[in-house]
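Hi again,

Forgot to attach this to my earlier email, sorry! This is the prediction with (2R)-2,3-dihydroxy-3-methylbutanoic acid bound. I've pasted everything inline since the attachment limit keeps bouncing my files.
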Amino acid sequence: METRKDTMKLRSQQWFDNPDNPGMTALYLERYLNYGITREELQSGKPIIGIAQTGSDLSPCNRHHVELAKRVRDGIVAAGGICMEFPVHPIQETGKRPTAALDRNLAYLGLVEALYGYPLDGVVLTIGCDKTTPALLMAAATVNIPAIALSVGPMLNGWYRGERAGSGTAIWDARQKLAAEEINYEEFIDIAAASAPSVGYCNTMGTATTMNSLAEALGMQLPGSAAIPAPYRERGQISYETGRRIVEMVHEDLKPSDIMTRAAFENAIVANSAIGGSTNAPIHLNGVARHLDVELTNDDWQRLGHEIPLLVDLQPAGRFLGEDFHRAGGVPGVFAELIGAGKLPNPDALTVTGKSVAENYADAEVTDREVIRSFDAPLVEKAGFINLKGNLFDSAIMKTSVISPEFRDRYLSNPDDPDAFEGRAIVFDGPEDYHDRIDDPALEIDEHCILVVRGTGPIGYPGGAEVVNMQPPAALIKRGVHSMPCIGDGRQSGTSGSPSILNASPEAAAMGGLALLKTGDRVRVDLRVGSANILIDNAELAERRAALEAAGGFAFPEHQTPWQEIQRSMVDQFDKGMVLKPAVKYQRIAQTKGLPRDNH
Ligand SMILES: CC(C)(O)[C@@H](O)C(=O)O
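Structure tokens for the complex follow:
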């Protein structure tokens, strides 16, 4: 096969071996020699491969990448490449205030500059915790040099008193027990700690396992890579293989735009329904797609994904955890099932292996039918997202696979109106307001109410926080009401089992319909027609809008950092991928913009 190496000079050689500009070559060379790389290595024409390192003490979910990078490096060298590892801005969902989502676009910007402005021919994207995956895929898309993703892998299964204790899910369940005074604070913390038994990210089908599975479904990481738990020996082995493969990809000039096509995104949407993926996935994949100029909307998620059944029995929709998923066949098992049933829209889509999805998974199989079900006996039929619209918002997502029997009986069982519910709205301006007032008897909250939280989107929060899964008042939990309908312009943890209506776009801070809602208004949600409306007439809505605009619009907290202000001024809404609007006009810049100018 004719390779790039045979036909053209590598990008990195424009830094290290440019006879047209000896002065700059010397300047570029000498400083990279100073830690021991030899001139021969830098001028040999060997691909220089970046490892975009997301692991650090601030990012515990990705921290194991610091170890795994050694195996990646071995693979790169074994395949004839040279490795340059560098840090990515930390994004830890459970650590960063006000929310790690604020930082996704910041990490993206930093990585675009690093990939474009340094002598890199290819890059290994060390993905893991929720936003690290989209931030890195978005940057690789914008720059469009050969890139391969490597998951850090989930934590081992958590156990508490003989039961699986899953990341996030165990905390949301225990929080209810704490509110109902069934456990005390010490036991609550013990349960939370038990759910995090090792290095790695959430062991549930939270946003991390979702996004890592979808990175494989998109074709951006080696087949079988997503589900291997972080501490397993196979994780080190696939890291080595990933390092080897990226060197070959540089020679083949196999780029993100060749792989992340519309066909790949369609496959990922279908995979997301089958795995019971997080409601964060549409935000992030729509965002990645925009950086590639691929059209992808929440209507696509409903059209392609809603009919697909839930096959993977992982918490929060099911019972098992990450080790079980890996043992049962992981993403290859799910793809074997999807392809076998003729439900994968594009089996011919190209992947990082240089082969198609169908070729990659030709020998894949499911080895535990309890964990990965067959199409004939799924966990839930029609398990994808519904994209709701109305005068409350233009788009909001609801994950139907987590509608519990309790929720269905209480809210979706009217024989005359089986897929709709209606209730009195209780409106909270942000999570602090919710925590302060949820148990206030004056609100007279009963199980016929709908809880609404606003001011929690990309502009309002800022960043868009995981605060929509609100639990009912303690008095109702004690009476056995464990979940109520929730609506919000924020996000929700992928580990939450609440069928909230979330990611509402436009958000209240952008003057979406939620800004006009008042406590006491009646709200109606109809899943069959996909609508969500405040039951007041248009004239009244227009009056409220005019009054709010006259008062200066929907109020949100002041900026606390420069980045909060900058991002607020240019961020798009959740349904549009929460991307920075000015960034999406920069497409495939390694090809369209040439090289950056010399620096001296
Ligand atoms: C559990 C977390 C931190 O909320 C996140 O990983 C998610 O699943 O959304």
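Residues 458 and 464 are 4 Å apart (CA to CA). The two ends are 39 Å apart (CA to CA).

That should be everything now.

G.
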